Every structure is written in structure tokens, then in C-alpha cells.
What does this fold into?
Amino acid sequence: MPFDRIFLDELSARNDIVEIVSQYVQLKKSGANYFGLCPFHNEKTGSFSVSPDKQIFHCFGCGAGGGVITFIMKAEGLTFPDAVRYLAERAGMQIPEQGEAERKAARHRERLYALCRDAGRYYYDTLWRPENRTAQQYFINRGLSRRTMNRFGLGYAPDSFHALIDAMTAKGYTREELMDAGLVSRSEKGHIYDRFRNRVMFPIIDVRGHVIAFGGRVLDDSKPKYLNSPETPIFHKSRNLFALNLSKSTKNDYFILAEGYMDVIALHQAGFDSAVASLGTSLTEEQARIIARHTDRIVISYDADGAGQAAAQRAIDILKKCDLQVKVLRIPGAKDPDEFIKARGADAFRNLIERSEDHNAFRIEQIAAKYDLEDDEARVLFLRDAARMFAGIESTIEREVYAGRAAKMAGVTAEAMNVEVRRELGIQRKRRKAAERREIRSPVGLAQPKDRSLAYTDMKSAKAEENVLRLLFSDQKLIAVAEKDLQPAWFSAPVLRKIYERVLELNRNDQMVDVLSFEGWLEPNEMSLLSAILEPGIPAGEHRGELQEYINTIRMQRVKDGTITQAGEDPLLTFGRIKKQNAGGQTI
Ligand SMILES: [Zn+2]
It folds into this structure.
């Protein structure tokens, strides 16, 4: 762990989780816990709980959970060290001396931030040199005002292999730093040269205002049209959005998701100051979650071409997962928002946004485009396909509206369409029921982790493993018992085994076993699972017997699947022997 435990204890003592969460969520006390509306998913009834005793939060709806640091990581979109810094600053605490390696890494990051800032400054200054009229003209031709160019810090990288290297080394930056910031490339012979040459430059700025990377566009039609910084210690494509540093303070109650830098800049200039773009890749789930922290509504405004529409389709799926209300803008007679605003003006564009359609309408058209609706057979297939999609819409009214629309498109009666939708609903209901039955039938009636990537393969064993962990967290004295009788290799769920191994290690080193010692160490989804496990709590009392029962259950499962075999003994015999011992209440 990058931070010393004594410091983290102090940090957590000075940042009570109830107090911190209250700044984002209205909490009401009920019993020992507090409840409110989850800030990480859209809900009308509060399923978000905060436990002051355990200093954890847990959402029964979306499964999010963790300690106070995880909460800040999620709420503010920060990395673990940055969330720690944030909380330390808030409590007026000094960040302690860290280990030499961490100190070095932190210093290195600070150098890279400074370097990117200086490089941005250099590109900006270069743009306005008289000899670079062509580059200035590029932005002017795109209709950008000087004010907009300054606001976005636009610049120009000259047509040279070493202009930036010279300028930055003169400022005292090393070649390694230039390499690590992604500003230069290395040739096969090992020489470094400017990565961006003869390109107009778009600085990428994080929410905290640091320049962290660049996008560069050619002035003509040469390839590649756009070149972006690679991933660096300060730049993670999937975790940043272009112009979020500006859009986060918008007064609009919606965000606009555009396709490229120029679209975003044109939108901001036209007064749409909540436009953002993903960075040269398709939208990621992380980016969608970041957007959902700032707004409930998003309007996708991608290019009208096939690639743009396909990207919109993917973006819908990702954004819906974050419970965002998604609309899709259709831009008549123009290839992108920039072109439309230039031709028709900002008010016309505002109208488009207001009239933009729910993503369902967009989907129907996408489905319809796959079929030739003049052809009878194709029409039937279209209705099936559309019905499958409608069955997924929760609101009955919405479902009927769109089903009616699809019926019209295919030239069939609304009734025919409804029959198809009802059939599809029936199929999906049956599927859900079967899944529920499977869950009830499982001996312990437990739930899979919310995150599918952590799915349990052996439910009976996993439930016992969860229970073991809950006990060990509640009473550290039990850890020695577990260590003696339960081998980590017997855990069926890799994530639970990983937690168990760390519990043993912490205990061996005489360290506290609590959520705090796992923050920043577990991945966020694993952290959510751990808080889900710990949430129920345990009544005071003696739990040795209980622990032993869970350990026996895990052992039995391992004997059954052949993980545990007694040397030379028939597995069936081992099984029977342990079963007998269990029945006798003996420990084995
Ligand atoms: Zn939630």
C-alpha cells in the first residue's frame, strides 16, 4: 500500500464516512445505518446505505460499495492516491513521507504535468508566430474565434523533428521525461524525435485543470488525420473526456456527446457548453460513469455517416447501463453538428436538441435499415427483431408508442405488432422465472456478485467462503483458527481467495483487518463485492463453531470436486469419512 497505515487511520478518523457521503447524498438514519438515494445509479427509492460502525457504504441496487476513500474515488473520479490527497487536504492533513518508490513516482508525475503544460504553452505560442499563418488559417476557416482558440488552448506543432525537443530540453526537461509524457517517439536506431509535426494541436485537460495529453490534426488530407498521445503515467484515455474540464460547470441539465475535438469546440463556441467527446476511441464504460456523475441526461450527437451511427448504437448501450436518459440527435442535411450550426445557426441546433428522439426511436430505425420492408418475409423478420427490442422497454406506454410506430413502418396493424411483442414478453418472462427458480433452488439462496466478471462457479462453496470472510473481519481472533484449518487453495472464487490471503498476511504482520486495509488494493468492482459481503454485519458473541461449519462446507466441496484427496484413499471414502465427522460435529 502506498500510504502508511497510521496515516490512513488518521485520515479515516478525520473524514467520517457519514459526513463525507452527506455532501453528495441526503441521508436519513434508520437503525444503526443511514440510507439515501444512490449517487452512482439512478433510483427513486433509497437503496444506498452507509454504516458508521463499519465505515462502509453499500448500494443494494447497483452493488457499489467500499470505504470512504473508494467513495471519493467514485464520486470525484479520482485514482486512489488522488482520493487520499483529496481527503487529506480536506482534513488539513500533511501527506506523510511515502516510501522512496512512491515519492519518486509522484515527483515524476508532477514533472510530466509541468512538461505537458509547458509543451501546450509552446504549441500555443508557435501557432501565433507570423510564419504559421496556414495553421492559424485552419482554425479561422473552421469559424473559430480567437477567444475560443484561447479558451481551448489550441496550438500548432511545427514541421520539425526536434523543435519541441529543443524547446523543452532548454527548459531543463530530460529526454526520458519527453518520452514518458508521450511527446516524442523513438526511432529504431534509438533516436528520439517530435511525435507531433505540422499538426494543429488540441490539448487534453483533466478535470483538475492539468494538461495531460494532446491530439494533433493534419492541415491537409494526409494520414493519420488525428494523432493522439499514447497512454502515459498521467494520461488514461478511457478515464478522460475531452472538454470535461469546461463542461463540468455547465448550467445545462444535459450533456452532449460529440464525436471529435472540432465538434466539441464548435458546440462550445455556439453556446453549448456541456459538449464532451471521448478521446479518439469509442466511448468506454468508465467515461459513461464519469458523465453520469455530472448529469442525468445525455444527447448523442455523432456524425450522420454509417460509422457515426454504429458508434452511436454502441454508445447507447454503454450509457443506458449507467442509467442515463439517452437521446440521439439526428442532423438533417449536414454531416456533423459543426456543419449544421454553421449553416443554420445555434438556435436551429437548440431546436434539434429539444426535438431529439429517445434512443428507442433511433433503434427502431437502425433495425428497420437491416430489412427491405417492401418484402413480406423481411417484414415479418423486422417485426420479430423489433418486438425483441420492445420487450426490453420497461414502461408499458413507451412500449406501445414505439410498437405502434414500428407497425406503421412495416405496414401492419398495431394489433399484429402487439401480438408479437406479447409473445416476446412471454418468452423473456419465462426466462427470468427460470433464472429465479434456479436461484431459489440453490441450497443457500445466495446471490451472484453484481459484477459478472466475478461470477461464482461453486455457489455453495462461495457462500461459505463469503461467510468465513465476514466472520474474520468481525473478529480478528478467528483468523488464526482459519489459517490452521482452511487453505487458500480451497477457495472456489478467485476474488474471495485473494481477499482471504491478504487477511492472513495482514494478521501475520499484526495489522488491522478492515475495509481500510483493502482500499486502493482491490479493484473497484472487487471492493464493491467486499462491502456487499460485510454489509449484513454479525451479532456479537462466539462464532468459532459457525466458522468451523463454513470451513467444513468448503472442505466438502473440495473433496467432491477432487481438489482434496487423501493420499492413497478413494475420493468416495474421503467424502464419506468427512461427512461422518461433520455429522458428529467434530472438527477435521
Ligand atoms: Zn447504486
User: Anything to note?
Assistant: The longest strand covers residues 211-218. DSSP finds 25 helices and 16 strands in the chain.
